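LAB NOTEBOOK - FOLDING QUEUE
OPERATOR: T.R.
BATCH SIZE: 2
PURPOSE: Compare the predicted structure-token outputs for two unrelated chains run back to back under identical settings.
PRIORITY: normal
REVIEWER: second-year student, initials M.K.

ITEM 1
FIELD SEQUENCE / FIELD STRUCTURE:
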Amino acid sequence: MSLDLPSQQHLDVGSILARHQTTDDANTLASIDRPPSEVEELPPAKIYHPLSIHVLALLMPASMFGVLARLGLQALTTYDGQSIFPLAYVQATGCFIMGVGLRMKVPFGNFYGPLYTALTTGFCGSLTTFSGWQVNIFDSWVNSGQFFRGGLRDFMDGFTQTWVTLVLSLASLKFGVYVCGAVQPYFSAPPPPSKNLRYTLTFLAILTYAATLPVYFFLPGNFRHQATAALLFSFPGTLTRYLLSINLNPRLKTIPLGTFMANSLGTALLGFFHVVQGFPSPVSQNACSLLQGLGDGYCGCLTTISTFAAEIGALKGWKAVSYTIISWTAGQLLLLLIMGSSFWGGHVKEQMTCSFQTS
């Protein structure tokens, strides 16, 4: 099975996240990011190829809105004396919406299948971030904020960010499934969109992303590091993750290889961008904004916690535990190699040295 939904109205989380005994784990993991298909017993006319222009086009604005939501939530929850790290809100919100999307997979398929992928892979995948989580943990280990605390407290801070994120993400995912299951019977399904409306939606989605290029160049420079650079790189990051998932997730029964590769690659790239932003001789203001956009946009959308949590829920027993441990360990080892060697070798500073201010 996959994370598919039978037609019954009342389902528990296990019915959605557990496997059908007649299907292997590889198909389970491969179907999470894909549009609803024959697995959900849809008629052929309502099934969209994973690489259909309608599916890919809707990923464009979905990834943009996901980035904006992440940056907005982080800005809202970052303040002096905050009680919890800002990414906790981001991951919990994205996983909750992911749970809603998983519970609505069949209704999405009966209405317009590409909307399912836009919501789960596009919006939730871009809202949540595995690479940002990993870098924050590593920053805690090395105390990059130069806080007055001992090594044991550095460890506790990184350990706290690890387990709180995992618990929040998995709980929010299941809570989203439950909430959607509770309210869904009170809403009737709308009629599917017409052909003209579907093509219009596809055209507008492409046009929306195309607008990020002039927005990047024509808005004032101080907007670039805040949002416009991230918007420019959002869809390429989401598309890379989606293609890796489509091509690699079906290969193994024990681990979603595509998501693992996307999360590992994005974490390594984000670590590298942080190193470049800490060079003793600061890079230019435009280069600094570009690096920030690549980190927030490309790496943030290339990596995902929401799909990661859904895959943990789809696996069982030690497969879920081993996938979690392998993914976390790989991320930290990559950052140790990239960021740790640069910090401790004295080549770069642990704090950002490049400036976003215009001269």
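ITEM 2
FIELD SEQUENCE / FIELD STRUCTURE:
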Amino acid sequence: MMVSGCSTVNPYTREDQTAKATSGALIGAMAGAAIGVASSSKKDRGKGALIGAASGAALGGGIGYYMDVQETKLRQQLEASGISVTRNGNDIILNMPNEITFGFDQSDLSSRAKTALSNVALVAKEYDKTALNVYGFTDSKGTAQYNLRLSQVRASEVSNHLIRQGVGVNRVMTKGMGEAHPIASNNSEQGRAQNRRVEIVLSPIS
């Protein structure tokens, strides 16, 4: 019952998923309880189970706390940058609208975007148990093949800047999504502008 009340929606697959902090705490609690039972005498079995459950829950819930602190620092660094910071379970999503990253149909990062990404890199280097998944998106104008390539190039520009700022290359994944997963209607210029974006999803490394 506890798990069913703590589900979120994956921003790309649109599938329900249990919040990682919650599931980690529950799994840790169950594992800790099992250890406590196995390692205790019959007389102290109940006490051992409670101790094991508490330590297991603390271990599992620690991931959530790690991401909480990281989210707070990202919000501080990106204040007034034009980049939104949202939370989905244990994932932190940075939405970089195209108006602050690239010119129309361009793939060179703006100076404003470079400054913001340098601040993201500062936090990412401090919290090195986090993976950075960089996704590029376009609107639906033009061919799907062209948009897919453009989105990949733009995502790569963002990833390369993070790496140049010292984020480990093994922590950065890049993928162009093209026209997939619009967040607004492509039937208006305002909607298309929202769909042209790069998102950085920060996730705890397993």
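REVIEWER COMMENT (ITEM 2): The two ends are 25 Å apart (CA to CA).
FOLLOW-UP: none requested
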